[in-house]
Amino acid sequence: MPTSSTAGTRVIGRLLRVLASTVASALLVVGVPWLLATTIGNPLDRLPDLLAGDVNDQVILAAIAAVVWLAWAQFAIAFVVELASALRRTPMPRRIPGVFGFQQGLARALVNGALLLLPLTLSTVAPAAQALAMAPAAAPPPAPAAAPATVAPAPRPQVPTQPVSVSADGARTWWDLAVQHLGDGSRWHQLWELNQGRAQDDGTVLRNDRTVLKLGWTVLVPATEPAARSAAQAAADVAVDVTVQPGDTLSELAAEHASGDWPQLWQANAGRAEPGGAHLTDPDYIEPGWTITIPAPLATDSGTDSAGAATDSGSNGMAADRVVVEPGDTLSGIAAARGADLDAVIAANTGVPQPDGQALTDPDDIEPGWTITIPRPADAQPSAGTDSGPSAAPTPPEPAQPPAATEPGASDSTPPAATEPGPADSTPLAATGPGTANSVPSAAATGPASPSAAPASAPSVPTAPVLTPAVSSPAAGSPSSDSSSSNSSSSSSVATSFAVFAGGGGVLAALLLAALVRARRRQLQHRRPGELVAAAPSGLLEIERALRSVGGASSADAQWLDEALRGLGHAVAASDGALSLPDVLAVCATDTRLRLVLASPCPTPVGAWTPQSDGTWVLDRGQSTGYDPQRRDRDVTPYPTLATVGYTAGGEHWLLDLERIGALTLTGDAERATNLARFLAAELAHNSWAELLQVTLVGFGAEMAQMHPDRLTYAADPAAALDAVTAQLRSVAAVVDESGLPVLDGRGRGIAGDAWAPHVLLIAPQALPDDATDRAGLTELLDAVTGRGDRSTVALVVTTGGNTDDTDVAAAGDGGWVLRVDEHGVLSIPDLGLELIAQQIPPEQAGQLAQLLALAVNTDEGSVASPLPEDKPVSTHPRPEPDEARWARADSALPLPEQVYLEQSATTSRDLQAMAPVVQADVREQLAAGDPDLDADVAEWTDRASSRPRIAVLGAVAVWPRGGASPRPLSPMKAEIAVYLSMHPTGVSPEQYGTDLWPEDPGIAGSTKLRNSIYELRRALGVNARTGTEYLPRNAATNGALYRLEDVLIDAELFRRLRLRGFTRDEQDDRLADWWQALHLVRGAPFDNQRPGGYGWLAGRPVDHEYTATMVDLAHAVATHHLAVGEPDRAEAAAKIALTATRGVEGASDISLLDLVWACDAQDRRAEGDAHVKQILRNHGADDLEDLSPRTYDVLRRRQLLPPAA
C-alpha cells in the first residue's frame, strides 16, 4: 500500500511526465512550424519550378517541407481535438477523419501527460449529489471478449468505528491519524477505506485519498485496535468496477484508487469487451462510459508485499505474485529471486498482453513496465518478503538449525517473538567505564515498535548457529546407512565451518584469508621451477572453502575497520598534542556505520568522527577515516586488543576493548564460553589493527598453537604465564609513573616505544591444580589489573565454565566485567545492556584453521611443493650422467650446453632438468600431431568478429558470451559459473556443481536456483554455429549426466596448449614463437578481481597457484634462452610479464626477480640489478643474504655477491 515515500515518488513522477509532455507538445505544435518557416519558408514558392520541370535541390527540399507541413497539420488537428475533449470532459471520437491513428495516439498521450495533474490542481472533492456510486463487486476472472460477466455487489467488512474531529492541534493527515489511532503511519490506507465516500458538513465527499483534510471535518477511526485479518475477511476483499468519465486515463484511475501503477490495471482489463462492440486493446485509449475493473489485490492492500509484488489467485487454483519488470531484470532472475520454477513462470506469462501491447513470446525478451505473474500453490506461504498485511514486520533470516531459546521463566513451548531491530545508531550507549552495570538499555529494545511485534514484557532472544555436528546416523546395516551417514557428515561439516564465521566472524574470516594468501604467496616465492604449492589436505577443504567464501566477501569490511581505527591514531599523532585519543570501551560495526562507545566523555572529535548526544562517536561509511598509508609503519595502533564477541540479527557486530576492560569473565555454559574464548584468541592473533601484541592461552587452546606462533602462544606452565604477565604489569606501571602519561596517551604520542606492547592472557582456571598457589596468584593478578581503573597493557580473559569456585576467583576483581553465554549461544553483556549471538570456534575447527595456516607458512624445501601437472613431455630415456649432461641437450627445449646457461643466466642444473627436459623425436612427433586446431583457436581468440564464447582467467576474470561480438562481459556470478565449468572439462554432476558454488546451502542440488543459473548461462552462451548444438548442452536431465561446456575458448587452456607445443618444435625459433604467444595471453594475476565471496571451490584445486607457477616457469625458460644467446632486453620483457602474474615486485617470485637481475647486469645496469636484489630481501623479510632460500643464495653467489660456500 502507499506510504508517504511512495506517494511522494508518484507525485514527482507525475510532475516529470507533465513537464516532458508539455515540452514535447510545445516543440511539435509550435517548434516544428517555426523551424520550417525560418529555414525553408513557404514550399509553394517552388511550385512553378516543379511544374516547369526544373527539379533542383531547393525544389526537393520544398517538396519534403510540404510533406512535413501536411503531417504537422494532421497532428495539430488531433492535438486540438484531444485537448478540447479533455478540458471539456466530453467524449472524443475514436478516430478523427484525415488523421493517422499513430498521430492521434501521440496527441492523446501528450495531452493526457500534460493534464496528468489536473485532478490535483482542480478540486479533489465533489458535492455529495455528484458523487459516483462505486458498488464493490466480486472479482471476476478475465472476462471473455464476447460477454462481460455481471456480478452481485458484496458488502464491505464492518469494523467498529468512532468519529474524530480534525483539529488545529491534532492530526491533520491520514498518516498522522494512522500513527495516533493504529500505531503505524504506514497503515493510513485502512483509515481511508473506512472513510471513502463519506460526506462532510460542507457538502464535500471524500472521493480521493489525496484529499486534504480540513479543520472541522470528522473522520471515522477504529474504536479498538483491529485484530489481524482472518482468512474469511481476506476472502471478502472484492474488486470494484468504475465507469470511465471524460478525460480519464488508466494512470489517473490507478492513482485515484491507490491501485499501484497503471500496468496492473491494464493487465486486468486487456481485451475486455466494452459497450458498442469495442474492446480495450490500447492502454492509452479508453472512452467515456467504458467499465474498468480495479482488481481486489489492488483495491485493498492485503495482498501486496513490501517489495511491491501483488498477490492474486488465478482460475487454475494457483495463488500468484505479480512483479513489475524493472530495467535490467531477467525472467530467470525474477523466478530465482522468488524461488519459483522458471518453466512455470514462462508458462504463466506466455501470450499475456502487456501494457505496451506486446506479449511474452521469448523468455529472454522482457521489457521494463511489464507485469510478470509468479505462480505458486494456493496453499503455499507467500514468497520471501511477502507480508499478509501492511503491519507485518520483516523477519530476519534464522541461523542454520537454531536451537529453541526462551526467556528465563517463559514456557518452553512458546518461542519469544522477534522484534524489528532499530537503526544502528539508535542504541544509547553512554557507558561510564568498566563496571557500569545495566547502565545501557539493550540495542534490540530501542528500535521503533512494530504493530506485530511482541509486547515489551517478552523481549526477543537471539539464537546462535549450531556449531556441533549431528550425532545421529542411520542404524548399522540399513541399506543406505553408509551414504546417508556420509552425506549427513558432509553437510554438518560444511554448516559448522560456515557457522564459525557467522555475523561478526566475517571480519575474522577476512583476516585469516589474508594471512593464508600471504603465506602461500611466500611459498610461491620460495619454490623452485617445476614445483607448485600443494593443495590443502582433503580434511581441510571445507574450512578453507568457508574461509575463501566468507573472507572474500568481508575483506572490505575488515579493511574499513582497520583503516578507521588506525586513522584515529594517525590524526592524533599528526596533531602534535592538540588532539587526544578517545577512551574506547567497545565498537559497534554495521555495514554502513562504526560507533565508538567511550569509557569517558570526549567532546572534541577527531577527523570525520561525529560525537552523539549519548556520548558515542559515529563514522559513516564513505567518510574519510583519516588513514594515512605513509604513517602505517610509523605510528603505533591505538586499540590493539579490540576483539569481536557477538552480533545481532539486525546486522550489528560488537567488539570489546579487552585492555580497557581489564578483566573479562566468561561464565555460563562451559563449552560455549570456551568456544567464545577461542574466537577471541584467533582474532587477536590475526587482527591487522594490532602491533607487538602477545596472546597467551592457558588451560585450553593447545590445538591453536600453530595458528600464528609469532603472536599466539599456548603455555603448558600456568605459573610461568602468570609470572610473565605480572612482570609486565609492574614494568608498565613504572613507565606510567616515570612519564606521567597514561597508556593510551603514551601510545598515541609515540613515547616510550614498545613499552606499551599489550599482552592478553586467556585462561581456564579449571586447568589450575586445586592445591597450587596459582589460583591465589590469579586472584592477585585480577585485583592488580582491575584496581588501576585504567589501561595497563594487560588484559585477562577467564573462562569459568559455570564453576562456582572459579566464578568467585574471577570476580575477585571488582572492576571486571562478567559475560554470560547460555546453552543456546546467547551472550549477555550487562555493562552494555546487550544480548548478542556469541561468536564461537569449536576445538575441531580451531585445530583445522591452525593446521591450514601452519601448512601454508612452511617454506622448507620439498615440504609443501608438488610437481606441476603432467602436461609437458618427459623423456623415456635414461638421464645422462653428470659428465655428459652439459653436452647432451640437443633434444631439449634449451639445446645449448648446460654450462652456457649456468654462466649467462639465473638458473641451475636442477632448473634445466625440470623446465626443459630432453624429449626424443618420436615423442615430439606424437604430441605435435595431437592438436591440429591450435592455430585456428588462437586466431579466433583475438578475432573481434568471432561469436565463440571466451573465458579469460589469466588476469582479471571475464567471460564474453559472444566472443568478440559481445557488447559486455557476463555478470560476476554468471562469469564464475562459466569459469567453474571451464575448469572441469569432463563435466560435473548437479550435486557437485551446487555444493561447490553454494557450499553454505546443503539443499541447493534440487533447488530452482541451481537450474535457473544453468538456464541463464546456457541462454547467454547460445548455440555453436559450427555444430548447431548449445555450448552448454541440455544433457543434465538424465541419470548420470553432467554439466559441461563444449568448444569454448579459454585463455588458460590456450596457454597450456601453446606451451606444450613449444616443447615439440624442432626449430628453436618456432618454439620461442609459441612460448611468446602464450606469454602474451597473460594480462595479470590469474583469477584476479574475483567476485566477493566467490571462488571458494578453488580450495579443492588451487588452479590459480598452478597457473601462476606455470607462467613464471615459462617466462623463466624464455628469459634463460634469451640471456644465453645475448638478448637481455627480451629476457627482461619475459621476466616483467611474469611479474604481472604475481601482482608486481612485492609478491614476485625469486625466479622472476633473479631473471631481472641478470638482464640488468647484461645491459650494464648494475645498480638496477642491485635494487632487485634488495627487493628480494624485503620480500623475505631478510636482513642478510644467508636468510634466503638455498636456490636464491646459490644463484646470487654466482653473481659474485657472496663468497663461495665453505
Structure description:
This protein has 1206 residues and is α+β, with helices and mostly antiparallel strands. It has five domains: 117 residues, no CATH class; 158 residues, Membrane-bound Lytic Murein Transglycosylase D, Chain A, CATH 3.10.350.10; 350 residues, 3-Layer(aba) Sandwich (Rossmann fold), CATH 3.40.50; 115 residues, no CATH class; 180 residues, no CATH class. It has 38 helices and 29 strands. The protein has a 14-stranded mixed β-sheet with strand order 14-15-13-12-17-16-25-24-23-18-22-21-19-20. Strands 2-6-7 form a three-stranded antiparallel β-sheet. The chain has a three-stranded antiparallel β-sheet with strand order 8-9-10. Helix 1 crosses helix 4. It starts with a helix and ends in an 8-residue tail after the last helix. The relative contact order is 0.06. The C terminus is likely disordered. InterPro entries: Bact_Kbp, LysM, LysM_dom_sf, WH-like_DNA-bd_sf. Keywords: Membrane, Transmembrane, Transmembrane helix. This is LysM domain-containing protein. It holds the Pfam family LysM.
The value of Rg in angstroms is 38 Å
Q: Using the alpha-carbon principal axes, give the shape.
A: globular
Name of the CATH first level of the largest domain: Alpha Beta
In order across it, which strands form the biggest sheet? Answer: 14-15-13-12-17-16-25-24-23-18-22-21-19-20
- Helices, by number, come to 38
Question: What separation lies between the terminal Cα atoms?
Answer: 86 Å
Poorly predicted tracts of residues: 118-157, 225-237, 297-319, 377-489, 804-813, 863-888, 1202-1206
Give me the secondary-structure category: alpha+beta
Q: In CATH terms, what is the architecture of the largest domain?
A: 3-Layer(aba) Sandwich
How confident is the prediction overall: mean pLDDT? 75
The biggest beta sheet is recorded as:
14 strands, mixed
Helix content: 25-40%
User: Beta-strand level of the residues, as a percent range?
Assistant: 5-15%
CATH fold name of the largest domain: Rossmann fold
Number of strands: 29
Tally of structural domains = 5
